[in-house]
Amino acid sequence: MKEKLQNEYAEYEMIGKILHIRFKKMDRLDILAAETIVNGRMSFQMDRYLPILCDVREVRFVDNLAREYFSSLGSLFIKVLAFLTEPGINDMLGELYLDNYYPKGEKYEFPSKVFTDHKAALDYINEELEKDGLSP
Prior knowledge:
alpha/beta; 136 residues; Transcription Regulator spoIIAA; 4 helices; six-stranded mixed beta sheet; globular; 6 strands
């Protein structure tokens, strides 16, 4: 598996056993950007399920088609997902993503949560991996 990769919308890096994806600065994330980001992740992962820390702090708005894409095809091969956001509007993007795919009361296919603190996000991923008997 590659150690680092980037495209015009995101940077991907394996740090330990966690895939870190940092979305580049953009005012509006549209369907083209979503497809490019997911295709980059799929290429990077090579069909392996991985825990993912997704840093979306530089994204200001995600349109509906992009959210739908992330929550369907964009959710493949994810073991655990932690969103890293800025407090306020940006952290609602992560919640919207999770609520878009899984209506209230339904169980997520993988553990996922939104954070504003990097260390807390990493701790969450590691705790979820330990619950499943997987080493972080």
